Amino acid sequence: MEKIEELNTFYEDKLYSILEEFEEKRKKIRFKILFIIFIVLWNLVTIYLFFIPESVKSSEIITFFIAAFAVFCTFIYKYLKKDYVKEFKQEIIKPLVDKLDENLTYSANLHISKSIFNRSMLFRFPDRFSGNDLIVGRIDDVNLEFSDIHAQKKYKDNKGRTKYSTIFQGLFIVAKFNKTFYGSTVVLPDLAQSSFGNLIGSWLQENNPNREELIKLDNVEFEKEFVVYSNDQIEARYILTPSLMEKILNFQQNASQDIYISFIQEHIHIAIDYKKDLFEPTVFSSLLNKELFDEYINSLILAVGIVKELNLNQKIWKSF
Amino acid sequence: MSITLITLVVIILILVYLYNSLISKKNQVENIFGTVDVQLKKRYGLVPNLVASVNRYMQHERELLEKITSLRAKAINPNISSDEKIRLDSQISSALGSIMVSIEDYPELKANENILNLQLTLNELESQISASRRAYNQAVTDYNNAIEMIPTNIMAKGMNYKRKEVFSIDENSRENVDVSNLFNN
After folding, report:
1. Residue-number span of the structural domain to which B52 is assigned
2. Any idea what the CATH number is for the domain that residue B96 is in?
3. What pTM was computed for the model?
4. Could you tell me which of A91, A85, A103 has the C-alpha nearest to residue A15?
């Protein structure tokens, strides 16, 4: 809470004036994008109406024009906002991260590595993997890193074309865990039981071929929200103590998104499924909207807060 | 004819499935109890060490130390039943908790590195034991459900399977040990 107030004051005192400058830039970029798109659209329609012979006109040609137009728009949008995004992150997000905790380092273009993402065993191995906004640091003697991640899987649609579907997009957090363990324990949102009911849902969970043994835990609320798989049921309970289960439930409430957690190779991996790229400036809506800024600080505080929230800094069991 | 045969095969398959699921639940309970047992033995191994280290200082808790020593002697006896082991574990946990609380009253003990290490090891073991206990209780609950629910209860009766006890000690009661009750057992 204290931190939120501190960051809000920082926003009002320091960042707001910079945001006002960016707001001007944003309006110019928006105008440029819309203007170019309008001109191109105008030309395409003219070409189609007056320069393409009637005999050639067909729905395929229209589809081709629309596709070409879509590719062009995406290119123009990305090209024109590139510098604006870069500057925004340097002048708004970076100072914000520095203000949050001086032990944190922010890199706009880096992200959590694919090997760590795969190690977490939370999702299927992605075919396309990208991300940005990497934040690395040491909070209360606990190493922590997190970034935006976008992981996609390749598939063929019914016409045989290769397409990509998103398997995860959101914040991915990795931190050293405060207990020594050797197996792997995965905590996933309880989608089966909430979609298919208790009987079929739990049968599906118990017979999931992609996962290890289903672990039934002794916290009813936790069991309702999550499903746990592990290759060592005693170790799973050693990690998921009654108090940690309560803390994870709290954490999920604060995140108000689906969360995925795994404990592998002495690390805790948390994926928060925001379904969008965080810490990005807007182009078509105002930057001065306080909700946008609140989202930046809430996600930052949530990620950095796991150390205290989940007591990762209490190494009472470890003698080193 | 063939319908009768198919029905018979299906019935036999169902019976085999039920039988196997009962056996696997029973084995699961035994398997996890094995792990609990190993961890309990580890902890019992540390008890004499702890008693020897605090003996000199804790003159007022002599009775408590003697009690834990005698409980340990009973617990390491290989001939006791699982239920007896569960009962002794609960008493030893309470006694250990009391000793840990008492240590707080002796500044020279709190500062002693040997005691500190013992406390760390016992804490670590305690959290492992607690995890195994919870795993054991879950396995026993699955087993008890199976032998009481239709249709496996009929088969369990034939196999002479009996309800098993769970570890009843919970996290809170272990943390707040009532020392006065400890000697009334």
Report:
1. 29-132+174-182
2. 1.20.1440.20
3. 0.81
4. A91
